[in-house]
């Protein structure tokens, strides 16, 4: 064993098992077959991995920047309501699921056996795609590649061989996923992106019913099932609004930071507005519980039933006054937006014309990457903050020692395989195959800790998901709760970290 090797072992010896040290001492003492060389390389890599200090915990209350954002430029703060200001307890998903299931039975006359199907809260995650032609729920990455092992028909995983047979490829053509928008092409998308948190119980119902049909050999059209489930759940929203408004504590999580944050913004002379698709009585009940009876004093403009994304994209839908006492809207033309009055529908153009708020002086918070964030960024130049509820669970998972160790070793093992893959001797191939099997095990272990079926909302095995690419494109900052903004001053600048490009790995500044 040479001197440098010996000193290295002394350095890291404390973190190793006796067996590891013996293995490396034995192998480095002589140079023999390819098998021994590969075993030595594995052993050295493992020792190096164990000697590495695990990364620090990520702050679950952090606000993360995709794009530089200087809050001192922001004069107007806008908010969506559902899943942005109001975070719901699991009871809301159960309620939506049960109402949707009952609607399927009553309105669409689905088989009575469906009444016994209970909601499985941890089955699906947000950001999946549903293939309306093939009836599959699956996860795509930012390259439109299918994540194998995350494709389900009903509640049953579809084996990779079958997935490849169905799609002929691991990459799905963009026209299939998003529709073909080129001139003279009218192909409709065959996939629906489930980017809304309200769609999670919808997916749960869809998969439960599909599983029931499959198990009972009932023939069905995946698109019809999708539309029936979607319409059932959406038709239930008014009933859900009523139930939740009558018993807010059972469904809405308290959030004491909200009032503090609104007060801070108001004291610093910022303007505040609320634009939500939900009806007034529902929002009012939630906001009274979250902020207090005088919650409207904080807001300069309140627009309910806004019908986003149309609110951000249409140009000629009149803004109307909502009479909360009569629970209806008034016919008069709106010529100014006044504090204390509830508005209804309208468009962002009218709001901008009547208030003068526009461009980068507006920061809008929402949870939906399309209907809240995409158009305001692309069309109106507003700054955007995404409120992503799932971030808490994802960060808490990243912070566990087991995850850190597995993710570390996965990286190093992948590098080891890459460096040694060109050996052609049968003994080498046998060893590399073992490494590949270990890598597969680690990939699955680091995936399933987030969600056993679909893994992380943000990642496939190594790439960002389709959902996170959209999110990072349209959000300047993101966090799991509005109250985390209280940890920063109103002149704070959020700086994005210098991301590492593939050719920069190993460079001195990484
Ligand atoms: Mg929302």
Automatic annotation (TrEMBL):
<dbReference type="InterPro" id="IPR023214">
    <property type="entry name" value="HAD_sf"/>
</dbReference>
<dbReference type="GO" id="GO:0046872">
    <property type="term" value="F:metal ion binding"/>
</dbReference>
<keyword id="KW-0479">Metal-binding</keyword>
<dbReference type="GO" id="GO:0008253">
    <property type="term" value="F:5'-nucleotidase activity"/>
</dbReference>
<dbReference type="InterPro" id="IPR008380">
    <property type="entry name" value="HAD-SF_hydro_IG_5-nucl"/>
</dbReference>
<dbReference type="InterPro" id="IPR016695">
    <property type="entry name" value="Pur_nucleotidase"/>
</dbReference>
<feature type="active site" description="Nucleophile">
    <location>
        <position position="80"/>
    </location>
</feature>
<feature type="binding site">
    <location>
        <position position="367"/>
    </location>
    <ligand>
        <name>Mg(2+)</name>
    </ligand>
</feature>
<comment type="similarity">
    <text>Belongs to the 5'(3')-deoxyribonucleotidase family.</text>
</comment>
<protein>
    <recommendedName>
        <fullName>5'-nucleotidase domain-containing protein 3</fullName>
    </recommendedName>
</protein>
<dbReference type="Pfam" id="PF05761">
    <property type="entry name" value="5_nucleotid"/>
</dbReference>
<feature type="binding site">
    <location>
        <position position="82"/>
    </location>
    <ligand>
        <name>GMP</name>
    </ligand>
</feature>
<keyword id="KW-0378">Hydrolase</keyword>
<feature type="binding site">
    <location>
        <position position="80"/>
    </location>
    <ligand>
        <name>Mg(2+)</name>
    </ligand>
</feature>
<keyword id="KW-0460">Magnesium</keyword>
<dbReference type="InterPro" id="IPR036412">
    <property type="entry name" value="HAD-like_sf"/>
</dbReference>
<feature type="active site" description="Proton donor">
    <location>
        <position position="82"/>
    </location>
</feature>
């Amino acid at each position: 064993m040479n001197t440098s090797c010996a000193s290295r072992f002394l350095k890291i010896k404390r973190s190793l098992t006796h067996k590891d040290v013996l293995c490396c001492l034995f192998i480095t003492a002589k140079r023999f077959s390819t098998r021994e060389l590969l075993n030595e390389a594995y052993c050295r890599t493992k020792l190096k991995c164990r000697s590495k200090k695990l990364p620090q915990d990520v702050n679950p209350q952090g606000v993360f920047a995709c794009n530089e954002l200087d809050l001192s430029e922001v004069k107007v703060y806008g908010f969506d309501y559902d899943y942005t200001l109001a975070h719901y307890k699991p009871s809301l998903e159960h309620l939506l699921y049960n109402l949707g299931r009952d609607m399927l039975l009553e309105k669409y006359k689905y088989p009575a056996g469906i009444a016994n199907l209970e909601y499985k809260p941890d089955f699906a995650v947000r950001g999946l795609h549903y293939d309306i032609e093939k009836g599959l729920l699956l996860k795509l990455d930012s390259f439109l590649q299918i994540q194998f092992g995350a494709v389900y028909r009903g509640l049953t995983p579809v084996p990779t061989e079958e997935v490849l047979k169905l799609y002929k490829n691991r990459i799905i053509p963009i026209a299939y996923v998003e529709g073909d928008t080129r001139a003279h092409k009218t192909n409709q998308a065959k996939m629906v992106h489930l980017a809304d948190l309200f769609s999670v119980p919808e997916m749960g119902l869809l998969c439960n019913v599909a599983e029931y049909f499959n198990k009972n050999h009932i023939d069905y059209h995946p698109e019809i099932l999708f539309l029936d489930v979607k319409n059932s759940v959406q038709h239930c929203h008014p009933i859900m609004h009523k139930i939740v408004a009558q018993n807010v504590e059972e469904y809405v999580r308290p959030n004491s930071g909200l009032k503090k944050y609104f007060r801070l913004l108001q004291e610093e002379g910022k303007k505040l507005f609320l634009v939500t698709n939900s009806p007034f009585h529902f929002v009012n009940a939630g906001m009274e519980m979250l902020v207090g009876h005088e919650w409207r004093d904080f807001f300069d403009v309140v627009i309910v039933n806004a019908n986003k994304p149309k609110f951000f994209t249409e140009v000629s839908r009149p803004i109307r006054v909502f009479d909360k006492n009569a629970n209806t809207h008034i016919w008069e033309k709106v010529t100014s937006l006044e504090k204390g009055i509830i508005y209804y529908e309208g468009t962002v153009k009218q709001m901008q014309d009547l208030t003068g708020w526009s461009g980068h002086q507006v920061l809008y918070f929402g949870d939906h990457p399309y209907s809240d964030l995409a158009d305001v960024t692309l069309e109106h130049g507003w700054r955007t903050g995404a409120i992503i509820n799932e971030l808490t669970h994802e960060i808490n998972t990243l912070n566990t020692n087991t995850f850190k160790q597995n993710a570390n070793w996965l990286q190093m093992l992948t590098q080891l395989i890459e460096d040694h893959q060109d050996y052609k001797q049968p003994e080498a191939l046998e060893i590399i195959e073992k490494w590949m099997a270990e890598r597969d095990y680690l990939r699955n272990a680091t995936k399933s800790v987030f969600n056993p079926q679909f893994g992380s909302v943000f990642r496939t095995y190594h790439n960002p998901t389709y959902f996170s690419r959209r999110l990072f494109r349209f959000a300047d900052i993101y966090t799991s709760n509005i109250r985390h903004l209280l940890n920063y001053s109103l002149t704070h600048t959020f700086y994005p970290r210098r991301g590492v490009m593939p050719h920069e790995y190993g460079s001195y500044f990484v």
